[in-house]
């Protein structure tokens, strides 16, 4: 029998109220996520982890403001306020998150020239993080995902996971969205269509 894992996406201070890229109600999910952590044998977390002057920061693009887009060699990229700087308080997990049980923390977005929303691939959809291999080697086939933000890092992780052959469930009450220009509805639709179970 294959194993199951809980994947907690980017539950970091910068995505919570008061943070650099705050997601409305981001901190509200912490108790729900903690209950799920207790109920899973395997827990994996991701941590958005950018170097200074990361190319996803609007400040790196003259004349651009956060939440505008820019064309990168790998495709369209949304620009963000500076956030989740490596080693900063903003990049730390929310203080209320029970992170000690996590068996693996996947850091992403650490290459200056490319962003990474998904826990599996960077935004070129080609450069792997190694997570798929790690899960296969450990015989984990069934993933439950929670965290921030529903319509970016959670959604891209879920879509890639299905593509990689994993069975994927997203617990919506344990996620919160950025919702830029209808992105929540668009990404929810894509997840459903791809076979992600939204519960
Ligand atoms: C995220 C925007 C930029 C996320 C990360 O975790 O959804 N969104 N970096
Ligand atoms: Zn980021």
Automatic annotation (TrEMBL):
- Name the SUPFAM superfamilies for this protein: Isochorismatase-like hydrolases
Q: Does the keyword Metal-binding apply?
A: yes
Stated EC number for the protein is 3.5.1.19
Q: Which InterPro entries match?
A: Isochorismatase-like_dom, Isochorismatase-like_sf, Isochorismatase_Nicotinamidase
Give one GO molecular function term. Answer: nicotinamidase activity
Report domain Isochorismatase-like positions.
5-192
The alphabetical list of record keywords is: Hydrolase, Metal-binding, Pyridine nucleotide biosynthesis
Q: What is the superkingdom listed in this entry's lineage?
A: Bacteria
Pathway assignment: Cofactor biosynthesis; nicotinate biosynthesis; nicotinate from nicotinamide: step 1/1
> Which GO BP terms sit in this record?
pyridine nucleotide biosynthetic process
Q: Tell me the CDD domains matching this sequence.
A: nicotinamidase
Entries under Pfam families matching the protein = Isochorismatase
NCBIfam families to which the protein is assigned, alphabetical: PRK11609.1
| Annotated family | Belongs to the isochorismatase family.
Q: What is this protein called?
A: Nicotinamidase
Q: Which organism is it from?
A: Nitratireductor arenosus
Underlying gene: pncA
């Amino acid at each position: 029998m294959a194993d199951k894992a809980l994947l907690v996406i980017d539950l970091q201070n910068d995505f919570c109220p008061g943070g650099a890229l705050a997601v409305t109600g981001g901190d509200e999910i912490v108790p729900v996520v903690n209950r799920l952590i207790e109920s899973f044998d395997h827990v994996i977390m991701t941590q958005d982890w950018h170097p200074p002057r990361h190319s996803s920061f609007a400040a790196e693009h003259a004349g651009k403001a956060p939440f505008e887009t820019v064309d990168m060699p790998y495709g369209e990229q949304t620009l963000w306020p500076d956030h989740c700087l490596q080693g900063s308080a903003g990049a730390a997990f929310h203080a209320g998150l029970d992170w000690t049980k996590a068996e693996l923390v996947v850091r992403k977005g650490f290459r200056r020239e490319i962003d990474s929303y998904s826990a599996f691939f960077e935004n070129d959809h080609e450069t792997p993080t190694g997570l798929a291999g790690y899960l296969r080697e450990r015989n984990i086939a069934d993933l439950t995902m929670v965290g921030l933000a529903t319509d970016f890092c959670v959604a891209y992780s879920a879509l890639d996971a299905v593509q990689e052959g994993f069975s994927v469930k997203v617990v919506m009450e344990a996620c919160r969205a950025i919702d830029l220009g209808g992105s929540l509805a668009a990404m929810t639709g894509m997840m459903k269509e791809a076979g992600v179970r939204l519960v």
